[in-house]
Design a protein that fits this description.
Elements lengths: L2 E6 L4 E8 L36 E2 L5 E6 L23 E6 L4 E8 L11 E11 L6 E14 L5 E13 L16 E9 L4 E8 L3 E10 L6 E11 L6 E8 L4 E9 L5 E5 L4 E3 L4 E7 L4 E7 L12 E2 L4 E7 L1
Keywords: Signal
């Protein structure tokens, strides 16, 4: 764990900013209706043309065909009799075909940020499953790609960040042997790519004739934000017992009070009163801190930084100054 702190001293006021290492993991699947189970066509088994696949955006090509299957060998539309999501035989399940032609399906999301100055790339994992339909020796090609809608190329099109091509896919079982389409195994294709916080990215699958598609997936591998906190403390130096100081922190130019600390002197030569519940914070958040005595008030503003090895901007104000910077690892 890496932690940082800084303190401002005037009348021995301490303000501390600490950073804990983020806990990383994979986010939930960001694709909605990834298996075409929303708004399902139901019975009968077979083709349903056209059929809505909202919120997918269907391209300008051929119509969407949502195929209903249930594992029954009597299913006669030439594709797998089970979907790619592992549903049991006897359960109604669905996958996508493009009827008599080619088309794209797309979904767009915004990459999350951790604070106002977050430029650390996120890693996104993406994949999807393809199969072949109609004939044992039919084949099809397509792709899955990730586009950055926030960065356009010279022709005004979104930048392609990654692409996984599917070339001449055929109807095979798990061993690679050619089988009838009803008996084939679904094939997974995918990859990983770095994306920029705050940008809009698009998951796009291209499905050509003789291909089916199912079980789209996109998730952030490292989606958690660093845990940053702002803590306040008051140090009394030989103050008479019973003296009271109130510290407060505000943001949004003073409009929102986010933390407070009441410190009462016990008469000790040196007494430190610390905030027992630090305030969670994001990068580049500006706070104003006020220390109130019965007869006077002073303010400061500090810009907190959580970039490793970089101190926060100097604290400024009427009488406060930065007196200490340290980092422990």
């Amino acid at each position: 764990m890496t932690s940082k702190f800084f303190s401002a001293s005037c009348q021995a006021l301490l303000v501390t900013a600490m950073i804990a290492s983020p806990t990383l993991g994979s986010s939930a699947n960001l694709i909605v209706n990834n298996g075409f189970e929303n708004n399902p066509p139901g019975l009968p088994t077979g083709n349903h043309i056209p059929w809505s696949i909202t919120p997918w955006v269907l391209g300008p090509g051929a119509q969407a065909n949502v195929v209903t299957v249930n594992g029954d060998a009597s299913y006669g539309n030439g594709g797998p009799n089970l979907d790619a999501e592992g549903h049991a035989s006897g359960t109604l399940q669905y996958y996508l075909d493009i009827n008599g032609g080619n088309n794209t399906i797309s979904q767009t999301i915004t990459v999350p940020t951790c604070g106002a100055i977050d430029t650390n790339p996120r890693t996104v994992d993406f994949n999807g499953y393809f199969s072949v339909r109609d004939y044992a020796f039919a084949s099809g090609s397509g792709y899955i790609r990730i586009l950055d809608q926030s960065v356009l190329d010279g022709s005004g099109s979104p930048t392609e960040l990654a692409i996984v091509n599917i070339t001449n896919l055929t109807s095979t079982d798990a061993s690679g042997a050619i089988v009838n389409p009803i008996d084939q195994t679904w094939k997974q294709f995918g990859g990983s790519v770095a994306v920029t916080p705050g940008h809009q990215i698009t998951y796009q699958a291209y499905i050509t004739d003789y291909l089916n598609f199912d079980n789209a997936y996109m998730a952030f591998k490292d989606f958690s934000c660093p845990s940053t906190t702002l803590a306040m403390a008051k140090q009394w130096n030989g103050a008479p017992g019973g003296h009271v100081a109130t510290l407060s922190a505000t943001r949004d130019s003073g409009a929102t009070q986010v933390d407070t600390l009441v410190a009462t002197s016990d008469g000790s030569a040196v007494q430190l009163v610390s905030d027992s519940s630090p305030l969670p914070s994001s990068q580049a958040t500006k706070y104003a801190s006020a220390k109130r005595f019965p007869t006077r008030e002073a303010r400061l503003t500090a810009k907190l930084s959580v970039v490793p090895g970089t101190p926060p901007s100097p604290i400024s104000g009427q009488v406060f100054s930065t007196s200490k910077w340290a980092m422990s690892v």
